[in-house]
Amino acid sequence: MNGSQWASGKLQVFETMESEVRSYIRSFPTKFRRASGYRMWDTEGKEYVDFFSGAGALNYGHNPPEMKRLLIQYLQEDGISHSLDMATEAKERFLLRFGETILRPRGLDYKVMFPGPTGANSVESALKLARKATGRQTVMSFTNAFHGMTLGALAVTGNKFKRKGAGVPLHHTVTFPYDGYMGPSVNTLTYIENFLEDSGSGISLPAAVILETLQGEGGLQAASGPWLRGLANLCKRHGILMIVDDVQMGCGRTGTFFSFEPFGMEPDIVCLSKSIGGYGLPMALTLLKPELDLWEPGEHNGTFRGNNLAFVAAAEALSYWENDRFAKAIARKGEQLRSALLSLADRFGGEVRGRGLMQGIALEPGLAEKVCAAAFERGLVIETSGTDSEVVKVMPPLVIDPEGLDEGLAILRSSMQQVVEAMGAAAIR
Amino acid sequence: MNGSQWASGKLQVFETMESEVRSYIRSFPTKFRRASGYRMWDTEGKEYVDFFSGAGALNYGHNPPEMKRLLIQYLQEDGISHSLDMATEAKERFLLRFGETILRPRGLDYKVMFPGPTGANSVESALKLARKATGRQTVMSFTNAFHGMTLGALAVTGNKFKRKGAGVPLHHTVTFPYDGYMGPSVNTLTYIENFLEDSGSGISLPAAVILETLQGEGGLQAASGPWLRGLANLCKRHGILMIVDDVQMGCGRTGTFFSFEPFGMEPDIVCLSKSIGGYGLPMALTLLKPELDLWEPGEHNGTFRGNNLAFVAAAEALSYWENDRFAKAIARKGEQLRSALLSLADRFGGEVRGRGLMQGIALEPGLAEKVCAAAFERGLVIETSGTDSEVVKVMPPLVIDPEGLDEGLAILRSSMQQVVEAMGAAAIR
Amino acid sequence: MNGSQWASGKLQVFETMESEVRSYIRSFPTKFRRASGYRMWDTEGKEYVDFFSGAGALNYGHNPPEMKRLLIQYLQEDGISHSLDMATEAKERFLLRFGETILRPRGLDYKVMFPGPTGANSVESALKLARKATGRQTVMSFTNAFHGMTLGALAVTGNKFKRKGAGVPLHHTVTFPYDGYMGPSVNTLTYIENFLEDSGSGISLPAAVILETLQGEGGLQAASGPWLRGLANLCKRHGILMIVDDVQMGCGRTGTFFSFEPFGMEPDIVCLSKSIGGYGLPMALTLLKPELDLWEPGEHNGTFRGNNLAFVAAAEALSYWENDRFAKAIARKGEQLRSALLSLADRFGGEVRGRGLMQGIALEPGLAEKVCAAAFERGLVIETSGTDSEVVKVMPPLVIDPEGLDEGLAILRSSMQQVVEAMGAAAIR
Amino acid sequence: MNGSQWASGKLQVFETMESEVRSYIRSFPTKFRRASGYRMWDTEGKEYVDFFSGAGALNYGHNPPEMKRLLIQYLQEDGISHSLDMATEAKERFLLRFGETILRPRGLDYKVMFPGPTGANSVESALKLARKATGRQTVMSFTNAFHGMTLGALAVTGNKFKRKGAGVPLHHTVTFPYDGYMGPSVNTLTYIENFLEDSGSGISLPAAVILETLQGEGGLQAASGPWLRGLANLCKRHGILMIVDDVQMGCGRTGTFFSFEPFGMEPDIVCLSKSIGGYGLPMALTLLKPELDLWEPGEHNGTFRGNNLAFVAAAEALSYWENDRFAKAIARKGEQLRSALLSLADRFGGEVRGRGLMQGIALEPGLAEKVCAAAFERGLVIETSGTDSEVVKVMPPLVIDPEGLDEGLAILRSSMQQVVEAMGAAAIR
Questions:
Q1: Mean pLDDT throughout A275-291?
Q2: CB contact under 8 A, D303 and C30
Q3: CB atoms within 10 A of CB B264
Q4: Vertex D362, ends D360 and D366: CA angle to 5°?
Q5: Which residue from A35, C377, C416, D363 has the least number of CB within 10 angstroms?
Q6: In sequence order, what are the residues at sequence separation of 6 or more whose Cβ sits closer than 8 angstroms to the Cβ of residue C132?
Q7: Domains of chain C as residue ranges with CATH
Q8: DSSP conformation class of D175
Q9: Which residues pair with B31 in a beta bridge?
Q10: Helix H or strand E segment including A355
């Protein structure tokens, strides 16, 4: 699919000059110009509702005004733009705000590390640290996990197509079944523990387990509280470090700042990126328990760890977390979304998955992509999830208002209607 | 942690909250606020000359006014901030300008790939592509090379301390001696070719070779033109792809936009990052010959590939390359720098290395760090290079004027004088 | 080192000169001189019943007279002793006999490969061939599998202690749960198939699966017929090669020449060693389907592939398989053994496992080793199985007569009685 | 080449039933029956002089009478044939004789380990032990080295064709240039030491180096004494263990029992196999310094470590080393051989290599195989060496008499003459 029949030349520069690796431009074949809150406009003036949020980097919506004001002011005052890991005022303000607003109220005691400004870089740093701290090499990951595209992160990612892209075998990891993978009657933790304890299983004691509490790319499978707590206990009993990759699920996506808050867990290492920068600006954090801070200076580094525009926006974004109003609003909108999706499932079949403002509906293979394409034509930016793209994934900015949510859901409903009618009802599960 | 005697509490937030992995803050223990061109100011108003350029990300200086103007305007107009690999006006403008200003005049026919916005991500994508295109796994790299800190990039990096940080063995690579590594009388290419052609050498045919034409982190060793051309021929004869990592040496650092231009080479893949974003904003490119564009859509991806603020600044930065004035000015300032460094070597000993505005002076072990620390106290931001930090590395913004260059060099000279006097002349090579 | 209280100096040469790696000498601390059939004598004239069979290499008993006669004759006539893979009369006779007596009557069409004369070498050759034939790298193996101690074979072995001995990570393999591993209610095949078919499981399509139909070292777990057939079908559907390691279970140990005969399977590759040489002489075979015979000459080799004394004995040993009398006798003695073990379990607790003349009784941790030590004192050579040595493993020569079997079993019974009485009944499961 | 034009059906069983992997049968296409000393006979009564010695396993010639007598007697007395690592009288006698005759007179203090009965198994055990003892993973090996075909041994072997057969990447090793590899003017030790000491070379400190003092399969390159001693010193300075693979070069092949004796070295680990069994019977030893004997019982094992027929012959074979007559005779015959080969080189071109009774002549590519084929037709069994089979390798039994040596050399001379005449003198270097 290259979309050129719709594009009629307007995407020619991209089609000619850019590598075939480009992908979202194929799902959303238009040229964007402007955006605000949960709305986007292309160069032809067509308006879109955004149920995509820049793949999770725009939890606070497009171009939130107060952040914008501060960014402009910072630029006008010739604030330092790029500083690696030197000290700057902007970075200091972010650190202080992060401590006051996020860590202290939650009773969390983490040291903060600034890796290169992508989720994959945060994951790479977390894996290195876990291996260094334990002196072990193997890291456990889960079926359908997604943690990034650099070799270390790819090695803990489940998607075979993406793994194959490595061009080399990916080692030092072992994949275990995520919660629910073996059906509702099998607790995969039992199996995992057997493997770890059995001296004949071939698996040496891992350095760490890395997981998402809800699999954003892997089909919106959510781990249950008991399973997560059980896993945390298992890790503690065996001296295995727990790494939560909250790159997509953190920053409020599931209703709390960290996705693991409702479960009474305290991971050893947490990866943050995407919406941490507030304004969609590249930034990433790795949080680590103080006793794990065994790094030598410069043992993991990178150039763009001091993106001060991101620090400015990120510090401001934390204002949303100064009290519980934002979290409560996400919860309400999450229920509104749940209800609408259940109604869709009732009407068209499918399975509703996820939590907070990361929910979706799993459809028969091939269907979800058609639904998203139809929705895009009607002015809704929405993508699929799952290794077989089988889930329609609803991920609006957290700041969306209930009306905007309804507006997008109405487009989704009519798009499903259209696709289903075109295919015949029998195609729906 | 050193430097605390100067810091007197002003860096307390960083020392308390940030991981021990932080490093530049230890060499430059102050809190920066503002910067312009080749000058920086800390929160106490102290002024610094910048011979560091954000580790090469600020070739066009701090906050260049025209880029700043365009960034503010883009923010004010609610331009799309973050777009992954969707089409935007800002990205289109960058692509067009890159084609017109850089590729076409040099007769280069590359497809453009946007990896995650760091040099390491570009290197990871280049390695993946080379392995995919050839169906082979081994990549050749060189002694003292530096290509990044994620597992794939680390595997082609020579520094043992950084490699050890991986926590796992690094495979699928083979290290060969860089030009000059075996002394002036041995052409390392002969040895490399023997190894490749001998059916008993244990090395299977590599997918690619990756190299810097001048080793920025590895001690400013510069490969000669004949060696580079010989390596290119060797690659052609054996069907090995050539990847030039121009992350630090590109964007004019050595005098031409690409560091390899003077040598009549045309690498199969080129990695760019650091100064490509113009304003120190995170961005990276991977350039590839059209026949290598075998990617499947999404086979390598990442969230922050659509940093539109970077696209806005990057497009404007290319104005410097519309004619040959900028290149000529770099050449003149490079000669000015060479002459000053040779005079230093004449006075204090040491070996002058590098080319363009990436030059330095190699000193006895332990000395270069002292010189840089003394210079910082006198208001010069400058770092070392080399796996044993044995080189004082002069890397000012390319836009520095001759007076600024002289100002910084005078500080460097007096700093060396001070260190040498403190140690006694015998310590100098 | 234990057992020295019995040894009283007679093992001094071994204790002084031999490496600590020696092991069976610790379980059977005497110096053997002579053996015949199922009886052994040490240098002090003490007689032992053999329920160990040289770890499976002596299925035809010690020094069977007709083989002995032929070996002496071959030596007297200056027959070629060592011939690598040159043609010799002795090797030709073996090949012809193996075709006539084993392959043809079973309708099996295999090419015969002679690897180095150990089971591990056969396994290494099988893995190489499977990878070459499929162009894939991953090999599936099972929990508690044992396939050998060289790096390739060790990588498909489950025992963590033995794996750790590698000193390097073991790659290109994935361990799956053997039949029964997840309890009686979970069919592990379902789980395996999920993993193979799910595009998000992280496991690329394997080249092959390697398995024992009954795990000789791994605790005498026997796979069921339906599970084995299901696995064979799964392999066929996915184009995965099936390698049966019959090194210990072949040559009649479970009642048929190949252990897989009762299940209607036809593996792609079969590994044989141990008793294939007839007289305990080093020899190994790798059988492969003709369409897999993609080897280049010499692509896998080794010096001792032409042990002609072994060929002489091996050819003669096949006489046992010229009709079904031998198989029927094994079956009868297998039932006799089953019945005796069930009676022991009834009396002392424990779980009876295995089939044919490879059966045992699983006891509480720590007990089996005590039982075997007590039995040795009473004149029975018998060892444990299982990664925690939890199984008493009864593996007499297949030629043992019912009286000999009873004699050994009586010693076993009284040894269990003694151990149990010493420990108190509560220690028994 | 399959030789069937000469074989006229007599090798049909092998061609039909045996895998394509067979190789020596293609070079020596006849069916052997009988052998004695340095002579062999095929089933048609044709006599051959043996310059091949079973690839080095028959240093004491075929069927030496005293060993034969003892083997027959052992069989007649029902001596234990197969005993794993239990104690037997035959094994004890071997150990005592090895201590008295070999270790003590040379002042060598080694513990003796019995790995599986092949050279590859000994190498695998040596690599495991070196990694365990140092806690490091990388092992250094050399260009054109050959150490065996199992995955661990293959990883330190240089031959690309054989490495490719692994079907998986071979890791944890690094190949360095052997003595002479970079031409006579470059001391490869300097290069190796640079790599080890340079913190930017990408190579972490190795566990061990493994080497042959003369490369038997790799083209008869001999390392010089100064180079070997320099390597030993380098290892000592860096805490790297030295493993000498004396599988082919040991047992007197180069004139002394161990090949390294003339150089005043004392390797940490020594691998022996091939002729150690005396009569061509499968056997292998790994010798290790007592302080390295860190094995847990059974940490490396295998079934055929107790081949008592081999122990009987091996103990007797050591009689050759009770005084210095045997060594002196080898030296004399080595000179006789050298002189003859130099005369051949003088007449036909080529380079004479090797020492003791392991010498050869390197010819133009393609020539050596033709010479060996012509020699075989004339009744001389002789093979090539070198990854491109470029060397005619003369390796007679050490017990050959001067007349036998002359007889074989005369056949070699006339074979070269024939080949050269057929090709024209220009083909000779």
A1: 98
A2: no
A3: 10
A4: 120
A5: C377
A6: C294, C295, D165, D167
A7: 10-64+325-423 (3.90.1150.10), 68-321 (3.40.640.10)
A8: E
A9: A87
A10: strand A351-355
Residue D252: helix, strand or coil by DSSP? coil
The band of A5, judged by pLDDT with boundaries at 50, 70 and 90, is very low
Q: Which tokens go with B342?
A: 């040779």
Structure tokens at C354: 């295995």
Tokens for B228?
A: 């580079």
Question: D204-213 as b/e, with b when 16 or more CB fall inside 10 Å?
Answer: bebbbbbbbb
Q: Which C residues 139-168 touch D at CB under 8 Å?
A: 148-153, 155, 161-162, 165-168
C-alpha B166 chain-centroid distance: 21
Query: Which percentage of chain C shows pLDDT scores above 70?
Result: 97
Q: Among candidates A223, A415, A427, A254, which has minimal Cα distance to A331?
A: A254
Q: What is the pLDDT of residue C423?
A: 82
The rounded mean pLDDT for chain B is 95
Q: Does A238 touch chain C (CB under 8 A)?
A: no
- Kind of pairing, strands B391-394 and B358-362? antiparallel
Interchain CB contacts (distance < 8 Å): B and D: 100
- Tens-place pLDDT, residues C338-374: 999 999 999 999 999 999 999 999 999 899 999 999 9
Per residue in A129-166, pLDDT (tens digit) is 999 999 999 999 999 999 999 999 999 999 999 999 99
- Whether the CB-CB separation of B204 and D158 falls below 8 Å is answered with no
Could you give the CA distance from residue C65 to residue A120 in angstroms, rounded to a whole number? 69
Residue C5, pLDDT > 60, answer: no
Q: Model confidence at D203, in pLDDT bands (50, 70, 90)? A: confident
Please tell me the predicted confidence (pLDDT) of residue B1: 35
Please name the member of B143, B191, B201 whose beta carbon is closest to the beta carbon of D201: B143
For residue A135, the chain D residue with the least C-alpha distance is D135
The predicted pLDDT at position A113 comes to 98
The alpha helices in A202-270, defined as continuous H runs, are 225-238
Q: How many CA atoms lie within 13 A of A110 on its CB side?
A: 27
Can you tell me which residue has the tokens 């006669």?
C69
Cα distance from A70 to chain B (closest Cα, Å)?
Answer: 11
- Across B362-383, b (16+ Cβ under 10 Å) vs e yields bbeeebbbbbbbbbbeeebbbb
CA distance B1 to B23: 9
- ipTM, two decimals, is 0.96
- List the helix and strand counts (H, then E) for chain D: 15, 16
For chains A and C, count residue pairs whose Cβ atoms are closer than 8 Å.
102
Contacts of C98 in chain D (CB under 8 A): 17
The confidence band for B203, taking pLDDT boundaries of 50, 70 and 90, is confident
Which amino acid appears at position C391 of this protein? V
The alpha carbon of residue A28 and the mean position of all alpha carbons in its chain are separated, in whole angstroms, by 20
CA atoms within 13 A on the CB side of A164: 16
pLDDT, tens digit (0-9, with 9 covering 90-100), for A13-32:
999 999 999 999 999 999 99
Interface touch C201/A164, C-beta < 8 Å: no
The angle subtended at Cα D75 by Cα D70 and Cα D81, nearest 5°, is 105
The pLDDT value given to residue B387 = 86
Break chain A down into helix, strand, coil percent, rounded to 5.
Answer: 45, 15, 40
Q: How big is chain C by its Cα radius of gyration, in Å? A: 22
d(CA D130, CA D127): 5
> How far is residue B2's CA from residue B65's CA, in Å, rounded to a whole number?
36
Paired strand residues for D285: D272
**3-class secondary-structure state, position A408:** helix
Task: Locate the DSSP E strands across B310-400.
Answer: 351-355, 358-362, 380-381, 383-385, 391-394
Task: Tell me the sheet residues that pair with B359.
Answer: B354, B394
- Amino acid in position B261: E
